[in-house]
């Protein structure tokens, strides 16, 4: 798989750790980031992996960035692309070339709280339970078919940091479990409901 990152890269770290076990079924062949200052890039370099930056600001427009990102990822010929804390929407060129095998992890129970501020939005709404969702990527904002979800309680004294940390603690093993199952056994959609994804 190729992993796309923008930030700390703790999900990338969990995937790298899992890949040390051959039986897990997947290996990371490269990491691509939209941010040159993402700490996740150092994790990739420490693991001896190619780590490339494709920053939006280095492209004349969004379509050119989408094309550059697509080329960088496709050059690594991945069977699976994992957006692990990648804070931008991939574009039409990316999905035309790689769509159907792009997975995202989102720190909320979809379809609640799409977008980049999900833990803050959950707190502001006042929900008592939120969580993480691993989903297939489509052209929408966190609208793709759900692969797996985990619920996490919201505590009365939570702030965005404590809540997001609790979500991330549940999110990492969920992502590792889903990616391993997809790698080992593939996935399918229910014949009567294309939004219902079946994992082995
Ligand atoms: C995760 O909660 C991810 O769902 C969200 O940003 C966080 C990334 O964490 N989009 P990390 O960079 O993997 O530590």
Folded structure, characterized:
- By secondary structure, the chain is α/β, with parallel strands linked by helices.
- It has 2 domains: 1-99, Rossmann fold (3-Layer(aba) Sandwich), CATH 3.40.50; 103-200, Formyl transferase, N-terminal domain (Rossmann fold).
- The protein contains 6 helices and 9 strands, in the order E-H-E-H-E-H-E-H-E-H-E-E-H-E-E.
- It has helices spanning 10-19, 39-46, 62-74, 92-98, 118-125, 160-185; strands at 2-5, 30-33, 51-53, 81-83, 102-106, 129-136, 146-153, 188-190, 193-198.
- Strands 3-2-1-4-5-6-7 form a 7-stranded mixed beta sheet, sandwiched between helices. A two-stranded antiparallel sheet has the order 8-9.
- Helix 1 links the parallel strand 1 and strand 2.
- The radius of gyration is 16 Å and the shape is globular.
- Residues 7-12, 40, 84-85, 105-107, 168, 171 line the site of 5-O-phosphono-beta-D-ribofuranosylamine.
What are the SSEs and their pairings?
Blueprint: E1 2-5, H1 10-19, E2 30-33, H2 39-46, E3 51-53, H3 62-74, E4 81-83, H4 92-98, E5 102-106, H5 118-125, E6 129-136, E7 146-153, H6 160-185, E8 188-190, E9 193-198
Bound molecules: 5-O-phosphono-beta-D-ribofuranosylamine.
The CATH topology of the largest domain, please?
Rossmann fold
What form results from the Cα inertia axes? Answer: globular
Give the percentage of residues in beta strands: 15-25%
**Small molecules held by this entry:** 5-O-phosphono-beta-D-ribofuranosylamine
């Amino acid at each position: 798989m190729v992993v796309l990152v923008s930030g700390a890269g703790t999900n990338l770290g969990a995937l790298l750790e899992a890949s040390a076990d051959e039986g897990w079924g997947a290996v990371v062949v490269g990491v691509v980031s939209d941010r040159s200052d993402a700490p996740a890039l150092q994790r990739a370099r420490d693991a001896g992996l190619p780590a490339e930056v494709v920053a939006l600001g280095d492209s004349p427009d969004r379509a050119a960035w989408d094309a550059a990102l697509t080329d960088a990822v496709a050059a690594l010929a991945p069977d699976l692309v994992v957006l692990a804390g990648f804070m931008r929407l991939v574009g039409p060129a990316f999905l035309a070339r790689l769509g159907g095998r792009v997975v995202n992890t989102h720190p909320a129970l979809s379809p609640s709280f799409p977008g980049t501020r999900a833990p803050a939005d959950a707190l502001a709404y006042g929900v008592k339970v939120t969580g993480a969702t691993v989903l297939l990527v489509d052209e929408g904002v966190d609208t793709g078919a759900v692969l797996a979800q985990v619920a996490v309680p919201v505590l009365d004294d939570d702030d965005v940091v404590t809540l997001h940390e609790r979500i991330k603690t549940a999110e990492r093993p969920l992502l590792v479990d889903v990616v391993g199952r997809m790698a080992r056994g593939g996935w399918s959609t229910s014949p009567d409901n294309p939004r219902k994804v079946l994992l082995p």
